[in-house]
Amino acid sequence: MAEVLGRLSSKAIALGLGTLFLVAACGGGGGGGGSSSPTDVTVWTAWGGAELKAFKDVLAPFESQTGIKVHLTTNRDSTTQIANGIAAGTDLPDIAPGPTDPAQVKDWVSKGALKPIETALGSQFSDYMSNTYGALTAAPGGSGDDPYIGLIGGKHYEMMVKTQVKGLIWYNKKVFTGQAPKTFDDLLAINPSQYNAKSLFCAGFESGAASGWPASDQIDNIIMRQSGDQVYTSWIQGKTKFTDPAIKLGYQTFLKEVSDSAVYGGRNTALSTNFGKAGDPMFKSPAGCLFLEQATFITSFFQQDFPSQNLKAGTDFDFFAHPSVNPQYDGNVNGFYDNFAMYNDTSAARKLMAYMATKDAQQIWANDGGTLAARKDINYTDPVFKNAATIAGSAKNLLVTAGDFMPADMQKAFWQSLLNVTRDPGSLDSQLTHLDQVQAAAYTSS
Q1: What is the pLDDT of residues 6-37, one digit of tens each?
Q2: Are residue 82 and residue 57 in the same domain, yes or no?
Q3: Residue 49 parent element (H or E)
Q4: The CATH number of the domain where 368 resides is what?
Q5: How many C-beta atoms surround the C-beta of residue 296 within 10 A?
Q6: Distances from the Cα of 437 to the Cα of 219, 241, 432, 442, angstroms
Q7: Cβ partners under 8 Å of residue 94, min gap 6
Q8: CA-based max dimension of the chain
Protein backbone atom coordinates (compact mmCIF):
# COMPACT_ATOMS: atom_id res chain seq x y z
CA MET A 1 0.00 0.00 0.00
CA ALA A 2 1.88 3.04 -1.23
CA GLU A 3 1.30 6.22 0.68
CA VAL A 4 2.85 9.64 0.30
CA LEU A 5 5.26 11.98 1.96
CA GLY A 6 3.60 14.26 4.52
CA ARG A 7 3.02 17.62 2.95
CA LEU A 8 3.45 19.82 6.00
CA SER A 9 6.86 20.28 7.53
CA SER A 10 6.80 19.79 11.28
CA LYS A 11 9.58 22.34 11.29
CA ALA A 12 7.27 24.81 9.54
CA ILE A 13 4.55 24.13 12.11
CA ALA A 14 7.04 24.68 14.89
CA LEU A 15 8.26 27.97 13.47
CA GLY A 16 4.89 29.41 12.55
CA LEU A 17 1.99 27.73 14.35
CA GLY A 18 -0.96 30.06 14.61
CA THR A 19 1.10 33.12 13.79
CA LEU A 20 0.85 35.47 10.85
CA PHE A 21 3.94 37.22 9.55
CA LEU A 22 3.96 39.33 6.44
CA VAL A 23 7.27 39.99 4.72
CA ALA A 24 7.42 41.73 1.37
CA ALA A 25 10.08 40.39 -0.96
CA CYS A 26 11.01 39.92 -4.60
CA GLY A 27 9.89 43.21 -6.00
CA GLY A 28 8.04 44.54 -2.99
CA GLY A 29 4.66 43.89 -1.46
CA GLY A 30 1.86 42.85 -3.74
CA GLY A 31 -0.87 42.73 -1.13
CA GLY A 32 -2.92 39.64 -0.48
CA GLY A 33 -5.00 39.55 -3.63
CA GLY A 34 -4.21 37.99 -6.94
CA SER A 35 -3.50 39.90 -10.12
CA SER A 36 -4.75 39.34 -13.64
CA SER A 37 -1.76 41.22 -15.02
CA PRO A 38 0.39 39.18 -17.41
CA THR A 39 3.48 40.73 -15.82
CA ASP A 40 2.65 40.24 -12.11
CA VAL A 41 2.01 37.22 -9.92
CA THR A 42 1.27 37.07 -6.19
CA VAL A 43 2.72 34.19 -4.15
CA TRP A 44 2.23 33.21 -0.51
CA THR A 45 4.62 30.89 1.30
CA ALA A 46 5.28 29.90 4.92
CA TRP A 47 9.05 30.12 4.47
CA GLY A 48 11.36 32.49 6.27
CA GLY A 49 15.10 32.71 6.89
CA ALA A 50 17.27 30.41 4.78
CA GLU A 51 14.23 28.78 3.17
CA LEU A 52 12.94 32.15 2.00
CA LYS A 53 16.37 33.12 0.68
CA ALA A 54 16.51 29.88 -1.30
CA PHE A 55 13.09 30.56 -2.77
CA LYS A 56 14.21 34.04 -3.82
CA ASP A 57 17.21 32.43 -5.52
CA VAL A 58 14.82 30.13 -7.38
CA LEU A 59 12.64 33.05 -8.46
CA ALA A 60 15.47 35.34 -9.63
CA PRO A 61 16.06 33.69 -13.04
CA PHE A 62 12.32 33.52 -13.67
CA GLU A 63 11.87 37.24 -13.07
CA SER A 64 14.93 38.08 -15.15
CA GLN A 65 14.00 35.89 -18.09
CA THR A 66 10.25 36.58 -18.23
CA GLY A 67 9.98 40.17 -16.96
CA ILE A 68 7.25 38.98 -14.59
CA LYS A 69 7.40 40.51 -11.12
CA VAL A 70 6.77 38.08 -8.26
CA HIS A 71 5.05 39.71 -5.26
CA LEU A 72 6.11 37.33 -2.50
CA THR A 73 4.53 37.26 0.96
CA THR A 74 5.51 35.07 3.91
CA ASN A 75 2.20 34.08 5.47
CA ARG A 76 2.36 31.41 8.14
CA ASP A 77 -1.41 31.19 8.41
CA SER A 78 -2.21 31.05 4.71
CA THR A 79 -4.75 28.22 4.97
CA THR A 80 -6.93 30.24 7.35
CA GLN A 81 -6.52 33.40 5.31
CA ILE A 82 -7.42 31.63 2.07
CA ALA A 83 -10.38 29.84 3.68
CA ASN A 84 -11.69 33.21 4.83
CA GLY A 85 -11.18 34.61 1.35
CA ILE A 86 -13.05 31.73 -0.26
CA ALA A 87 -15.95 32.14 2.18
CA ALA A 88 -16.11 35.90 1.67
CA GLY A 89 -15.53 35.84 -2.07
CA THR A 90 -12.53 38.15 -1.77
CA ASP A 91 -9.25 38.08 -3.69
CA LEU A 92 -6.93 35.12 -3.25
CA PRO A 93 -3.21 34.91 -3.98
CA ASP A 94 -2.38 33.59 -7.43
CA ILE A 95 -0.16 30.84 -5.97
CA ALA A 96 0.11 29.47 -2.42
CA PRO A 97 0.44 26.09 -0.68
CA GLY A 98 -2.57 23.80 -0.80
CA PRO A 99 -4.44 22.98 2.43
CA THR A 100 -3.38 20.03 4.58
CA ASP A 101 -6.87 18.92 5.66
CA PRO A 102 -8.15 16.30 3.18
CA ALA A 103 -11.72 17.49 3.65
CA GLN A 104 -10.63 21.06 2.92
CA VAL A 105 -8.83 19.95 -0.25
CA LYS A 106 -12.05 18.37 -1.54
CA ASP A 107 -14.12 21.39 -0.53
CA TRP A 108 -11.84 23.91 -2.21
CA VAL A 109 -11.74 21.81 -5.38
CA SER A 110 -15.54 21.60 -5.43
CA LYS A 111 -15.74 25.39 -5.11
CA GLY A 112 -13.24 25.94 -7.91
CA ALA A 113 -10.72 27.66 -5.67
CA LEU A 114 -7.94 25.23 -6.58
CA LYS A 115 -7.06 25.00 -10.26
CA PRO A 116 -5.79 21.73 -11.78
CA ILE A 117 -2.04 21.36 -12.10
CA GLU A 118 -2.76 19.85 -15.51
CA THR A 119 -4.03 23.30 -16.48
CA ALA A 120 -1.16 25.12 -14.82
CA LEU A 121 1.57 23.05 -16.47
CA GLY A 122 -0.03 22.39 -19.84
CA SER A 123 2.40 20.56 -22.12
CA GLN A 124 4.91 20.23 -19.25
CA PHE A 125 2.56 18.08 -17.17
CA SER A 126 3.87 14.78 -18.55
CA ASP A 127 7.44 15.78 -17.71
CA TYR A 128 6.33 16.68 -14.18
CA MET A 129 4.65 13.30 -13.74
CA SER A 130 7.59 11.35 -15.17
CA ASN A 131 10.29 13.05 -13.13
CA THR A 132 8.62 13.65 -9.76
CA TYR A 133 8.71 10.96 -7.06
CA GLY A 134 5.82 8.68 -7.90
CA ALA A 135 4.44 8.61 -4.37
CA LEU A 136 3.93 12.39 -4.60
CA THR A 137 1.83 12.18 -7.74
CA ALA A 138 0.04 8.81 -7.79
CA ALA A 139 -2.53 7.39 -5.39
CA PRO A 140 -2.27 3.88 -3.93
CA GLY A 141 -3.64 1.20 -6.23
CA GLY A 142 -4.15 3.64 -9.09
CA SER A 143 -7.07 5.42 -7.44
CA GLY A 144 -8.14 8.78 -8.83
CA ASP A 145 -8.52 10.25 -5.37
CA ASP A 146 -5.87 10.93 -2.75
CA PRO A 147 -6.42 14.27 -1.00
CA TYR A 148 -3.12 13.82 0.87
CA ILE A 149 -1.39 14.75 -2.40
CA GLY A 150 -4.18 16.92 -3.79
CA LEU A 151 -5.43 14.28 -6.23
CA ILE A 152 -9.19 14.60 -6.67
CA GLY A 153 -11.29 13.04 -9.43
CA GLY A 154 -8.18 12.00 -11.32
CA LYS A 155 -6.77 15.55 -11.44
CA HIS A 156 -3.88 17.03 -9.47
CA TYR A 157 -4.37 20.23 -7.49
CA GLU A 158 -1.03 20.46 -5.69
CA MET A 159 2.35 20.66 -7.39
CA MET A 160 5.25 19.19 -5.42
CA VAL A 161 8.49 21.18 -5.31
CA LYS A 162 10.51 19.95 -2.30
CA THR A 163 10.75 16.94 0.00
CA GLN A 164 12.46 15.98 3.25
CA VAL A 165 13.19 12.55 4.71
CA LYS A 166 12.65 11.88 8.42
CA GLY A 167 13.82 9.18 10.81
CA LEU A 168 17.51 9.61 9.99
CA ILE A 169 20.07 8.89 12.71
CA TRP A 170 22.69 11.68 12.75
CA TYR A 171 26.15 11.45 14.26
CA ASN A 172 29.49 13.23 14.55
CA LYS A 173 31.89 11.29 12.31
CA LYS A 174 34.84 12.12 14.53
CA VAL A 175 33.08 10.55 17.52
CA PHE A 176 31.08 7.60 16.23
CA THR A 177 33.43 5.55 14.08
CA GLY A 178 31.56 2.25 14.18
CA GLN A 179 29.31 0.54 11.65
CA ALA A 180 25.68 1.55 11.28
CA PRO A 181 23.51 -0.86 13.29
CA LYS A 182 21.24 -3.08 11.22
CA THR A 183 18.39 -3.33 13.72
CA PHE A 184 16.82 -1.04 16.28
CA ASP A 185 17.85 -3.46 19.04
CA ASP A 186 21.44 -3.24 17.77
CA LEU A 187 21.18 0.55 17.99
CA LEU A 188 19.95 0.42 21.59
CA ALA A 189 22.76 -1.98 22.51
CA ILE A 190 25.59 0.39 21.52
CA ASN A 191 27.66 1.52 24.50
CA PRO A 192 28.35 5.26 24.15
CA SER A 193 31.32 5.12 26.52
CA GLN A 194 33.11 3.01 23.91
CA TYR A 195 33.27 6.21 21.84
CA ASN A 196 33.91 8.53 24.80
CA ALA A 197 30.36 9.89 24.68
CA LYS A 198 28.16 10.44 27.71
CA SER A 199 24.84 9.14 26.36
CA LEU A 200 23.47 7.15 23.45
CA PHE A 201 20.92 9.71 22.24
CA CYS A 202 20.33 13.41 22.18
CA ALA A 203 16.75 14.69 22.01
CA GLY A 204 14.94 18.01 22.09
CA PHE A 205 11.16 18.15 22.18
CA GLU A 206 10.61 21.84 23.00
CA SER A 207 9.10 23.93 20.23
CA GLY A 208 6.85 26.53 21.83
CA ALA A 209 3.16 25.88 21.20
CA ALA A 210 4.14 22.95 18.99
CA SER A 211 6.27 21.19 21.61
CA GLY A 212 6.19 17.45 21.19
CA TRP A 213 6.34 17.22 17.40
CA PRO A 214 9.96 15.95 17.35
CA ALA A 215 8.90 13.11 19.65
CA SER A 216 5.97 12.36 17.33
CA ASP A 217 8.38 12.02 14.41
CA GLN A 218 10.33 9.44 16.40
CA ILE A 219 7.31 7.33 17.28
CA ASP A 220 5.98 7.59 13.71
CA ASN A 221 9.17 6.02 12.43
CA ILE A 222 8.84 3.23 14.95
CA ILE A 223 5.19 2.39 14.29
CA MET A 224 5.44 2.35 10.49
CA ARG A 225 8.46 0.01 10.65
CA GLN A 226 7.21 -2.07 13.55
CA SER A 227 3.57 -2.69 12.63
CA GLY A 228 3.44 -1.70 8.97
CA ASP A 229 1.98 0.89 6.65
CA GLN A 230 -1.61 -0.34 6.86
CA VAL A 231 -1.76 -0.10 10.65
CA TYR A 232 0.05 3.23 10.51
CA THR A 233 -2.31 4.72 7.93
CA SER A 234 -5.37 3.38 9.74
CA TRP A 235 -4.14 5.05 12.91
CA ILE A 236 -3.72 8.41 11.15
CA GLN A 237 -7.28 8.11 9.83
CA GLY A 238 -8.65 7.49 13.32
CA LYS A 239 -9.63 3.89 12.64
CA THR A 240 -6.99 2.27 14.88
CA LYS A 241 -7.19 3.28 18.52
CA PHE A 242 -4.27 4.50 20.58
CA THR A 243 -4.88 1.63 23.01
CA ASP A 244 -4.45 -0.84 20.15
CA PRO A 245 -1.53 -3.18 20.99
CA ALA A 246 0.41 -2.00 17.92
CA ILE A 247 0.26 1.65 18.93
CA LYS A 248 0.98 0.89 22.57
CA LEU A 249 4.02 -1.13 21.51
CA GLY A 250 5.20 1.89 19.52
CA TYR A 251 5.00 4.07 22.63
CA GLN A 252 6.85 1.46 24.68
CA THR A 253 9.61 1.28 22.10
CA PHE A 254 9.84 5.07 21.94
CA LEU A 255 10.31 5.20 25.72
CA LYS A 256 13.47 3.13 25.37
CA GLU A 257 15.02 6.03 23.46
CA VAL A 258 14.17 8.64 26.08
CA SER A 259 14.92 6.84 29.33
CA ASP A 260 17.19 8.65 31.76
CA SER A 261 19.93 6.14 31.02
CA ALA A 262 19.69 6.56 27.25
CA VAL A 263 19.12 10.26 26.59
CA TYR A 264 21.60 13.08 27.21
CA GLY A 265 20.83 14.96 30.41
CA GLY A 266 17.92 12.68 31.21
CA ARG A 267 14.25 12.99 30.32
CA ASN A 268 13.85 16.51 31.68
CA THR A 269 16.63 17.78 29.44
CA ALA A 270 14.93 16.26 26.40
CA LEU A 271 11.68 17.96 27.40
CA SER A 272 13.24 21.39 27.90
CA THR A 273 15.67 21.46 24.96
CA ASN A 274 14.58 23.14 21.72
CA PHE A 275 14.61 20.82 18.71
CA GLY A 276 17.09 23.03 16.86
CA LYS A 277 19.62 22.76 19.69
CA ALA A 278 19.10 19.05 20.36
CA GLY A 279 22.16 17.93 18.39
CA ASP A 280 24.61 20.43 19.89
CA PRO A 281 26.09 17.98 22.45
CA MET A 282 27.31 15.76 19.60
CA PHE A 283 29.83 18.42 18.62
CA LYS A 284 31.19 19.23 22.07
CA SER A 285 34.21 17.66 23.73
CA PRO A 286 33.66 15.22 25.19
CA ALA A 287 30.58 14.40 23.17
CA GLY A 288 27.35 14.49 25.11
CA CYS A 289 25.74 11.85 22.92
CA LEU A 290 26.33 9.67 19.90
CA PHE A 291 23.08 10.04 17.94
CA LEU A 292 20.21 12.38 17.15
CA GLU A 293 17.13 11.27 15.23
CA GLN A 294 15.84 14.03 12.97
CA ALA A 295 14.96 14.95 9.38
CA THR A 296 17.24 16.18 6.61
CA PHE A 297 16.66 19.84 7.48
CA ILE A 298 18.60 19.53 10.77
CA THR A 299 21.99 19.99 9.06
CA SER A 300 21.54 23.75 8.87
CA PHE A 301 21.22 23.86 12.67
CA PHE A 302 24.48 21.94 13.12
CA GLN A 303 26.31 24.42 10.96
CA GLN A 304 24.82 27.61 12.35
CA ASP A 305 25.35 26.57 15.98
CA PHE A 306 29.05 25.82 15.50
CA PRO A 307 30.32 28.37 12.95
CA SER A 308 33.90 28.19 14.21
CA GLN A 309 34.06 24.45 13.48
CA ASN A 310 33.02 24.97 9.85
CA LEU A 311 31.18 21.64 9.91
CA LYS A 312 30.97 19.82 6.58
CA ALA A 313 28.38 17.26 5.55
CA GLY A 314 29.92 13.84 4.98
CA THR A 315 33.17 14.91 6.65
CA ASP A 316 32.15 16.09 10.11
CA PHE A 317 28.61 14.72 10.32
CA ASP A 318 26.56 12.10 8.54
CA PHE A 319 23.56 9.85 9.07
CA PHE A 320 22.42 6.29 8.63
CA ALA A 321 18.88 5.26 7.79
CA HIS A 322 16.50 4.27 10.56
CA PRO A 323 17.44 0.70 11.54
CA SER A 324 15.08 -2.20 10.96
CA VAL A 325 12.40 -2.71 13.59
CA ASN A 326 10.45 -5.43 11.80
CA PRO A 327 12.14 -6.71 8.59
CA GLN A 328 8.91 -7.07 6.64
CA TYR A 329 8.34 -3.31 6.91
CA ASP A 330 11.86 -2.08 6.16
CA GLY A 331 10.67 -0.31 3.00
CA ASN A 332 8.58 2.25 4.90
CA VAL A 333 10.08 5.75 4.93
CA ASN A 334 8.69 8.83 6.65
CA GLY A 335 8.90 12.35 5.30
CA PHE A 336 7.09 15.49 4.26
CA TYR A 337 6.84 17.75 1.25
CA ASP A 338 6.23 21.31 0.14
CA ASN A 339 3.72 22.10 -2.58
CA PHE A 340 2.19 25.00 -4.44
CA ALA A 341 -1.34 25.30 -5.75
CA MET A 342 -2.76 27.75 -8.29
CA TYR A 343 -5.73 29.78 -7.04
CA ASN A 344 -6.03 32.19 -9.97
CA ASP A 345 -5.63 30.94 -13.52
CA THR A 346 -3.58 33.73 -15.07
CA SER A 347 -0.88 33.58 -17.72
CA ALA A 348 1.74 34.78 -15.21
CA ALA A 349 0.68 32.19 -12.63
CA ARG A 350 0.84 29.41 -15.23
CA LYS A 351 4.32 30.45 -16.26
CA LEU A 352 5.60 30.51 -12.68
CA MET A 353 4.04 27.13 -11.85
CA ALA A 354 5.59 25.64 -14.97
CA TYR A 355 8.98 27.10 -14.08
CA MET A 356 8.95 25.79 -10.50
CA ALA A 357 8.27 22.28 -11.83
CA THR A 358 11.43 22.29 -13.95
CA LYS A 359 14.71 20.62 -13.19
CA ASP A 360 16.51 23.96 -13.45
CA ALA A 361 14.36 25.57 -10.74
CA GLN A 362 14.50 22.64 -8.35
CA GLN A 363 18.23 22.28 -8.89
CA ILE A 364 18.63 25.78 -7.44
CA TRP A 365 16.74 24.68 -4.33
CA ALA A 366 18.99 21.64 -4.01
CA ASN A 367 22.14 23.69 -4.60
CA ASP A 368 21.19 26.11 -1.81
CA GLY A 369 21.10 23.14 0.55
CA GLY A 370 18.82 22.06 3.34
CA THR A 371 16.29 20.20 1.22
CA LEU A 372 15.61 17.55 -1.36
CA ALA A 373 13.79 18.43 -4.54
CA ALA A 374 10.54 16.73 -5.54
CA ARG A 375 12.12 15.69 -8.84
CA LYS A 376 14.11 12.48 -9.14
CA ASP A 377 16.61 13.81 -11.68
CA ILE A 378 18.35 16.40 -9.48
CA ASN A 379 22.11 16.27 -8.86
CA TYR A 380 23.28 16.65 -5.26
CA THR A 381 26.82 17.71 -4.45
CA ASP A 382 26.11 17.45 -0.72
CA PRO A 383 26.78 13.78 0.16
CA VAL A 384 24.17 13.83 2.92
CA PHE A 385 21.36 14.89 0.62
CA LYS A 386 22.59 12.62 -2.13
CA ASN A 387 22.20 9.69 0.25
CA ALA A 388 18.83 10.95 1.47
CA ALA A 389 17.61 11.13 -2.13
CA THR A 390 18.63 7.51 -2.56
CA ILE A 391 16.55 6.56 0.48
CA ALA A 392 13.51 8.43 -0.86
CA GLY A 393 13.93 6.96 -4.31
CA SER A 394 14.30 3.37 -3.13
CA ALA A 395 11.54 3.42 -0.49
CA LYS A 396 8.66 1.00 -0.94
CA ASN A 397 6.26 3.37 0.82
CA LEU A 398 6.77 7.07 1.53
CA LEU A 399 4.49 7.71 4.48
CA VAL A 400 2.95 10.91 5.78
CA THR A 401 3.77 12.35 9.19
CA ALA A 402 0.95 11.19 11.46
CA GLY A 403 0.34 14.29 13.57
CA ASP A 404 0.32 16.59 10.55
CA PHE A 405 -2.75 14.81 9.18
CA MET A 406 -4.70 14.33 12.39
CA PRO A 407 -7.50 16.76 13.37
CA ALA A 408 -6.19 19.72 15.36
CA ASP A 409 -7.47 18.49 18.75
CA MET A 410 -6.03 15.04 18.10
CA GLN A 411 -2.69 16.45 17.01
CA LYS A 412 -2.40 18.58 20.14
CA ALA A 413 -3.30 15.70 22.44
CA PHE A 414 -0.95 13.32 20.61
CA TRP A 415 2.02 15.66 20.93
CA GLN A 416 1.22 16.36 24.58
CA SER A 417 0.94 12.64 25.37
CA LEU A 418 4.51 12.10 24.22
CA LEU A 419 5.73 14.84 26.53
CA ASN A 420 3.69 13.34 29.36
CA VAL A 421 4.94 9.76 28.96
CA THR A 422 8.51 10.98 28.58
CA ARG A 423 8.13 12.79 31.90
CA ASP A 424 6.24 9.89 33.53
CA PRO A 425 6.50 6.54 31.72
CA GLY A 426 4.14 5.02 34.28
CA SER A 427 1.30 7.14 32.91
CA LEU A 428 1.29 5.34 29.55
CA ASP A 429 -1.96 3.42 29.97
CA SER A 430 -3.89 6.43 31.22
CA GLN A 431 -2.46 8.58 28.41
CA LEU A 432 -3.54 6.09 25.76
CA THR A 433 -7.03 5.80 27.23
CA HIS A 434 -7.35 9.59 27.17
CA LEU A 435 -6.16 9.66 23.56
CA ASP A 436 -8.88 7.18 22.61
CA GLN A 437 -11.44 9.59 24.03
CA VAL A 438 -9.96 12.54 22.15
CA GLN A 439 -9.85 10.45 18.97
CA ALA A 440 -13.52 9.50 19.19
CA ALA A 441 -14.53 13.16 19.50
CA ALA A 442 -12.00 14.67 17.09
CA TYR A 443 -12.72 12.38 14.16
CA THR A 444 -16.48 12.65 14.64
CA SER A 445 -16.34 16.43 14.36
CA SER A 446 -13.63 16.71 11.71
Answers
A1: 544 444 444 333 322 333 334 433 445 666 78
A2: yes
A3: helix 49-66
A4: 3.40.190.10
A5: 26
A6: 20, 9, 9, 9
A7: 34, 35, 41, 42, 43, 342, 343, 344, 346, 348, 349, 352
A8: 65
